[in-house]
Write a structure and sequence with these properties.
The chain is of the alpha/beta class. It contains seven helices and eight strands, in the order βββαβαββαββαααα. The radius of gyration is 28 Å and the shape is elongated. InterPro entries: SporV_AA, SporV_AA_N_sf.
């Protein structure tokens, strides 16, 4: 290392969201550790000015960042940790969901779930099983054990709350719910797919550039 060369440590985030049309700066996509005299200048460096044709997803990789930093401060050494790229999602103003649409989706999910449970119970002859269980407990046969069925229905609801570890906005503990885990895995796979597609576009654009006289 040359004497007087500044060393900059970078750690890129995986996925960030920025307002639509905003310039992407280093402070938005990375954690930076550098000399306090130059760190503010580094954080304000513009890495990308999103255009309409870029869409709402912008990929910025470490090579682009290094190139930008060396343009501003030539005599630096850059060390990076973690991911070699960051996916920037440009988001517009958040709109409140329409009440009619919310109710329609809620009713669809409610009745769809109810029909699924009812069809499952019909397939496994749950009515006959419940009648037999009540008969074994009480010694009397009741073709319509409403008390047992009511308790069973409440138990299904309580079991779902415990399983998903969530009731409206309240969580029982800090463990992620199964739905949160599935959403995380979905987002990871989606990000990886988008990154792969963005790299393909970059390579195609670079190839066209080399062919142009």
């Amino acid at each position: 290392m040359k004497q007087g060369t500044a060393t900059i440590y970078l750690q890129l985030r995986k996925h960030v969201k920025l307002p639509l049309g905003q310039d992407v700066r280093l402070r938005d996509v990375a954690r930076v550790l550098a000399d306090p005299n130059i760190e503010p200048r580094l954080l304000d460096i513009v890495l990308k000015q999103p255009r309409e044709q870029d869409g709402n997803l912008v990929l910025i990789d470490m090579l682009q960042i290094i190139s930008r930093l060396q343009e501003r401060i030539p005599d630096i050494q850059i060390e990076y940790m973690g991911e070699p790229q960051v996916l920037v999602e440009m988001v517009g103003k958040e709109r409140r969901p329409l009440l009619v649409l919310f109710l329609a989706v809620w009713l669809l999910l409610f009745f769809g779930s109810a029909l699924t449970i009812m069809n499952f119970h019909a397939d496994v002859s749950m009515q006959a099983v419940q009648v037999r269980i009540v008969e074994m407990i009480t010694g009397e046969r009741d073709e319509h054990p409403h008390l047992f069925q009511g308790a069973y229905s409440l138990g299904i609801g309580f079991g779902m709350v415990v399983f998903f570890n969530h009731l409206f906005k309240k969580k029982w503990n800090e463990e992620p719910t199964p739905l949160e885990v599935e959403m995380y895995l979905y987002q990871e796979n989606l990000d990886q797919f988008v990154i792969t597609e963005e790299y393909k576009k970059m390579h195609k654009a670079a190839g066209r550039g080399e062919k142009d006289p």
